[in-house]
Design brief:
- The chain has three domains: 214 residues, HUPs (Rossmann fold, 3-Layer(aba) Sandwich), CATH 3.40.50.620; 69 residues, Uridine Diphospho-n-acetylenolpyruvylglucosamine Reductase, domain 3; 122 residues, 3-Layer(bba) Sandwich (Phenylalanyl-tRNA Synthetase, Chain B, domain 3).
- It is 38% helix and 21% strand.
- The chain has 14 helices and 22 strands.
- The strands form five sheets. The chain has a six-stranded mixed beta sheet, with helices on both faces.
- The longest helix is centred in the middle third of the chain and has 30 residues.
């Protein structure tokens, strides 16, 4: 097994013998085997142990066991205690996810502090099979069929080439002690249900099901590489990237076959549920204005576009501009100049510059987001108009409307910034002093 793991590391270039590596060691069979193998092969290991405080005294005993094991091998050792349940509640995530976040955040810090090359964890072939099954049940694309990858950023998994049985045989050969996590036998965690219930049932159908599924993940890795190349080519054809997301060109999308699969590969990475993606695919020919949400993103059907952008919480903060201010920098750069109204003065046609009658303006000015019920007198018109109607007339999308800022004098709208000023403050023949107001970085 030593040779098998060594060849696997070298083939995939997971680790360099000359550099330090952080080894996550829980004290269980897999991590003890990983540590012993890497140490025996001559890697410069640093042991990292997390005490998640989930199993009372058992967690503390595991910590002491790992510490003693590291000392016996004369390997540097670090440990940390986490209040995992409190973290999970605070972040509204599962205990499993909380432990994962805490563990990898700390591992990454250790790697940086120790100038290590990578973080080695003890996932093996059986774990990859369980991941495949979990992904199938949850709903997955082709990537989910490949199981666990040997490298994910700074995290490497040298034991993915080995099965649980091989690991147990290795431990017996070298007479290595390890700790047994009692929680592995419970059904409180999703992975344990697959390990302790689903896989035994599958073995009744096919005794070699684990090897079969493992071989399947390897085939899907190759297929996925070919598939990804094709998907990337399509993405380059139909997607335009923006500061907050992407814009999908529907007409270009429709020229490709298998629209549902293309949308899945694009939108799943933005957190959209497969059921939601299926609904999105049915409205590309439908009416404009349909909106769909993931946790962090929103998709808007806007004419011939699907606009994906980060969900924005409207900023209710107001920004004041005093009469002595010539320039401000929040929430964008706004500059005020005072000009004389001369015979050769020409009004700007730039949408980000307005000229108004200084005598009609009261300070301080206010910048804020628009709200329902806001209204103004559009430049060139004598009647009041609701902003919501103005937006419809000018065909502003939902995202455009969310990004609208107003400049007010007193309680009256002076300017829908970048769109239209208010007619009441326009320059006339009687105007002597002019305020030129310009914005940038908006």
């Amino acid at each position: 097994m030593l040779k098998k793991v060594e060849n696997y590391i070298q083939k995939l270039q997971l680790l360099n013998l000359n550099d330090k590596v952080i080894v996550g060691v829980s004290g269980g069979a897999d991590s003890i085997a990983l540590l012993h193998i890497l140490h025996t092969l001559g890697y410069h290991c640093i042991v990292a142990h997390c005490n998640f405080k989930l199993r009372m005294d058992e967690s503390d005993t595991d910590e002491e066991f790992v510490r003693t094991n590291a000392l016996s091998l004369k390997i540097p050792y670090y440990s940390i205690n986490f209040e995992t349940i409190e973290y999970a509640k605070a972040h509204k995530i599962s205990t499993e996810m909380a432990a994962r976040d805490l563990r990898y955040n700390w591992f990454t810090k250790l790697m940086t502090d120790n100038q290590a090359q990578a973080i080695a964890v003890a996932h093996h072939a059986d774990d990859s099979i369980e991941t495949l099954l979990m992904n199938l049940v949850r709903g997955t694309g082709l990537k989910g069929m490949t199981g666990i990858s040997a490298r994910n950023g700074n995290v490497v998994r040298p034991l993915l080439c080995s099965t649980r049985i091989e690991i147990e045989n290795y431990l017996m050969k070298y007479n290595l002690e390890y700790r047994t996590d009692s929680s592995n036998a419970t059904l409180d965690y999703t992975r344990n249900k697959f390990r302790n219930q689903v896989l035994p049932l599958l073995r009744e159908i096919n005794p070699s099901v684990q090897q079969t599924l493992y071989n399947t993940t390897k085939r899907f890795e190759d297929i996925n590489a070919v598939y990804n190349n094709a998907i990337e080519s399509i993405k380059n054809d139909i997607i335009v990237k923006t500061d907050s997301g992407i814009i999908i060109n529907i007409q270009k999308l429709k020229k490709h076959d298998h629209i549902d699969s293309i949308l899945f590969e694009i939108l799943y990475s933005y957190g959209f549920h497969p059921d939601t993606i299926q609904k999105i695919s049915t409205i590309i020919e439908g009416e404009t204005g349909k909106v769909f949400y993931s946790e962090k993103y929103r998709l808007l059907k806007n004419r011939d576009q699907l606009i994906v952008s980060k969900i924005v919480n409207l900023d209710k903060k107001q920004f004041q501009i005093s009469e002595s201010d010539n320039i401000i920098f929040e929430p964008f750069t706004l500059e005020i100049k005072r000009l004389e109204n001369t015979a050769d003065f020409i009004l700007s046609k730039n949408p980000y510059i307005i000229h108004v009658d200084a005598e009609k303006i009261s300070f301080p000015l206010t910048i804020r987001k628009w709200t329902i019920g806001d209204s103004f007198f559009p430049y060139g018109m004598k009647n009041r108009k609701k902003l919501s109607d103005f937006f419809i007339d000018n065909k502003l999308s939902l995202i455009d409307k969310e990004n609208v800022w107003l400049l007010l004098t007193g309680n009256e709208i002076l300017w829908i910034v970048g769109y239209r000023s208010d007619n009441r403050f326009r320059i006339s023949d009687k105007t002597e002093q002019i305020l030129e107001i310009s914005v940038s970085n908006i």
